[in-house]
Amino acid sequence: MAMDADAAGGDGPARVRWNARYRDRALPEEPASFVTERLPLLPRTGQALDLAGGGGRHAILLARHGLDVTLIDVSDVACAAARARARAAGVAVEVVRRSLAVAAVPPGPFAVVLAHHYLDGAVWEAAVAGLAPRGVALLCQPTVRNLERHDRPGRRWLLEEGRIRRFADGWCARQPGLEVVELTEGWTPQGRHEARLVLRRRAG
C-alpha cells in the first residue's frame, strides 16, 4: 500500500511545467537498465531516496528489492501516478510532492540514493552526504553530446562532459569514507550519451 505526503510551496512554475509535461507524455513504467543492472550492488534493507522519481518506476523496483523508499517529485501528476502504481504493485512507497530546488533534501541516513535524469549538483551532494555506511548512490545524467542525436533533454538539463568526474572528486575530498565504484561516460545501447556514477560509503 502506498503512503503519501505533500510538502508544497515555493515551486509554482516548475510544478506547472512538469504537470503539463506529464499530462502530455506517458510516464515510463519500466525501470532503466542503469538501475536494474546495478541492483546487486545495493543493500537490501534500509532507507532509499529516489530524487525526482516521476511515476515511480524505480521506487517500486527498490521497494521490491527490500528497501523503505521515499520518492520526491515536484509534479502532482507524477506523484499521483507513483502512488497508484505502488498500490497496484503491492509495495509501500512514501511519495512526497516537493521541489528539490526550494526544499532541503531529507537528512538520511540512506542505504540508497538514486538520481536518474535529474540534474542538480547541490542536491546530489546533499543526498550523497546522507549515505549510511555501506550506502550506495546511483547517479545517471545525459551529457551535452546527447544533442548530437536527440533534441531532448534541452541544453540546461545536460552535463558538460567530464563534469561528473569533477563532482565525484570534490565530494570524495569533502566526505571521508566516500569512494567511487563506477564512473563512465559514453553512448548507451539505447542511443543516449550518459554520465554514470556509482558511489559507496565505506563502513566505519
Structure write-up:
The chain is α/β, with parallel strands linked by helices and 204 residues long. The chain is built from six helices and eight strands; from the N terminus they run βααβαβαββαβαββ. The chain has helices at 12-24, 33-36, 57-65, 76-89, 121-129, 163-174, and strands at 3-6, 47-51, 68-73, 93-97, 110-116, 131-142, 178-187, 193-201. It has an eight-stranded mixed beta sheet with strand order 1-4-3-2-5-6-8-7, sandwiched between helices. The longest helix has 14 residues, at 76-89. Residues 1-9 have low confidence and may be disordered.
Give the secondary structure arrangement, pairings included.
Elements: E1 3-6, H1 12-24, H2 33-36, E2 47-51, H3 57-65, E3 68-73, H4 76-89, E4 93-97, E5 110-116, H5 121-129, E6 131-142, H6 163-174, E7 178-187, E8 193-201
Parallel strand pairs: 1-4, 2-3, 2-5, 3-4, 5-6
Antiparallel strand pairs: 6-8, 7-8
Low-pLDDT runs: 1-9
Number of helical stretches of at least 4 residues:
6
- The SSE order reads EHHEHEHEEHEHEE
The oligomeric status of these chains comes to single chain
Q: Can you list the strand order of the major beta sheet? A: 1-4-3-2-5-6-8-7
Class derived from helix and strand content: alpha/beta
| Shape estimate | globular
The largest pleated sheet is described as: 8 strands, mixed
Quick gist of this model?
With 204 residues, the chain is of the alpha/beta class. It is built from six helices and eight strands.
